[in-house]
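Appendix B: complex inputs.
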Amino acid sequence: MGYPWSNQKTEMIEEMPMAATDMVIMDTGRSYRGYVPWIAALVAILIWEAVAALHVVSSVALPSPIQVFRDLIATATVGYSGQTLLNSTLFSFGRIAVGFVLAVLVGVPIGFWMATTDWVFLIIDPFLQFLRPIPPLAYLPLIVAWFGIGELPKVILIFFCTIPIIIISAMSGVKGVQENRKRVAQCFGANHWQMFRYVILPSALPEVFTGMRVGIGVAWTCLVAAEMIAASRGLGWMIMSAGGQLQIGVVFVGIIIIGLLGYGMELGIRTMEKKMVPWKGQA
Amino acid sequence: MIQFMDVGKMYPATGKGGEPTVAVQEFSLTIEDGEFCSIVGPSGCGKTTILNMLAGFETPTRGQIMAGDQVVTKPGPERAVVFQRPSLLPWMTVFDNIGFGLTIRDKNPKGHNLEITQMVEEMGLSGFERHYPYQLSGGMQQRVSIARALITDPASLLMDEPFGALDAQTRSDMQRFLLELWKTSQPTVLFITHDVDEAILLSDRVVVMTPRPGMVSEEFQIELKRPRKWDSILSTEFLRYKKQILSVLRHEAF
Ligand SMILES: Nc1ncnc2c1ncn2[C@@H]1O[C@H](COP(=O)(O)OP(=O)(O)O)[C@@H](O)[C@H]1O
Ligand SMILES: [Mg+2]
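Resulting structure:
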């Protein structure tokens, strides 16, 4: 039986003026958001400079920002132990990118599967909970013994450090789907695929992104551990090696580059997030 | 025709030592095609449970429910539901939300532009097609929910306190709006509310429920002539119905 809902006249709308509350809620950006972070960074550098200039600690232990800048130029041009900064950075970045992307590609489907299929959850969850609290340094020797000292063990270490976070966030994203939203799709007779495509996947995405943002931080944390595996290049290697030779300026260069890169990747994921889940935190 | 035949619903006990909850008991009700039927009752008396069973989200533990000539076993597009809290999909625009039922039915998100545009105009949502639900007021969100429910031409419309979260002015606008929509084609409506005024103003019949376990306490045929206007609620007839219904509710609540 068909109901001619669509034959409605427009006069009805005139009869019913919209209430004052029926307005679109707009969000306006604030201008100070643009420069406050820069001022904060500048103040931090000035304090650092002041502490160094006052010789509170010896200049070997705490080089001044200017000294670190000189070391930056030196490692960028001449290099450190035969590796330029760009070279080290690219290697570290590559290891992180491969390990992290693999963790996302493998972890997200596993998390979804665990959330929807009970026996999968029962099988994988004990391993996940067991692996999660182990610090990466603890299984470093095992990874070296099994995978040698090339690029593979480094990538594997980053992969294993980040994948639990990704799995757990994907799983909780799916479990957090609002019942009403699933019911809407059921009402219209959605099949499993449609339910996943239109309701479950988009519901889970915000949490997946949160997991990715946490995960990328952890990946950088693991990097130093990964590059302790007989590495001869990479930012983690550079830091450890320069530290051993008391070249604290180079250590600072490494730390700053890692911080900036981590921050940059976080911003990248945040931008992706804004594009893909613009409703996050608002519904 | 919708028929509840001696329907009961018992929720199992939660945790050890808990008692199972009998939410609804011996509930029988027949709603004619095209009838606008409201259910009022104290909070927790099983109104939502009844609607969820008719929608097919929950199964009765006793008796059965017929919609048309079919026993209800699962949700279906001929029984559209409008939820209390807007259940719009936040990742879709107003346009896509309204067309969601067509997307699911035809397994294709494209090719419904004409129908959706018509519905958007009818619902007074023109200009908001590209907005996301969180950018709309509560009243507009509920309008989108109603539009989404109606676009697949359902035989019946199930509404669970759809205007409960709205302010008085918007609520009254939405009531008139719903009556206008219903007037043209008169689908069967099961409307749940705890607002007696709203029930009388909208309905052909008001069913009053007892406190939990919910049963039909009394039914009132509302013979106010249509179209009903906002000032209908001031007529002596209206007040008489209101007095009768309130006295049953009071009595039931002890
Ligand atoms: N899923 C559930 N599990 C256990 N008890 C429930 C569940 N849903 C509702 N109830 C109980 O059933 C009774 C009726 O609930 P409900 O139908 O939501 O009432 P109403 O909509 O009239 O306020 C309440 O006492 C409630 O606590
Ligand atoms: Mg309820």
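Residues 211 and 253 of chain B are 7 Å apart (CA to CA).
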